[in-house]
Amino acid sequence: MNKKSIGIIMLILIAIIAIFALVNRGLIKNSQEAHANAEVLITGDNVEDKFTYDQIIKLGEEEFTAIFDSSNTDPEEHKYTGIPLKNLIEEAEIRLEDKQQVNIRAIDGYTVALKPDEVLEDENVYLAYKQDGEPIKSKEEGGSGPYQVIIRKDAFSQRWCKFVAEIEIK
Hints:
Layout: H1 3-36, E1 40-44, E2 47-51, H2 53-56, E3 62-68, E4 76-84, H3 85-91, E5 102-106, E6 111-114, H4 116-120, E7 125-131, E8 134-135, E9 148-151, E10 164-169
Parallel strand pairs: 1-10
Antiparallel strand pairs: 1-2, 3-4, 4-7, 5-6, 5-10, 7-8, 7-9
């Protein structure tokens, strides 16, 4: 290859990177706005809907215990308040039975993929907004909220998702 061909390839790659950066910036901005307003975006089955805190707490609020275990701390049992995640998905009128995956995306882009069967299982996957009776603080306040997905049957808390901003059903 000559220098001119390499230069053209480099320009094309730079253009592609710039386009991806612009697209990603827009997605992050939308996630940040939803996070600041304590909203969760849910998408799937040609549905795109945002749910506010006031809407979420009306979807079958439950108190439950779960053991948080991280590599930095000993396992600790906490009392959480939240809703079964399946309730939110049903409210958005999205069917899980024929889907492959439920992606939980955090404000920072961290994503956890769950099987629909896990989400449909009773007393397993929750969207929590209180821990030990107190609202889960936002990232800016040193917390893991305002929403956190908790999978009770995940023995080591490895697939819990803090700072939940979006739920995508595929």
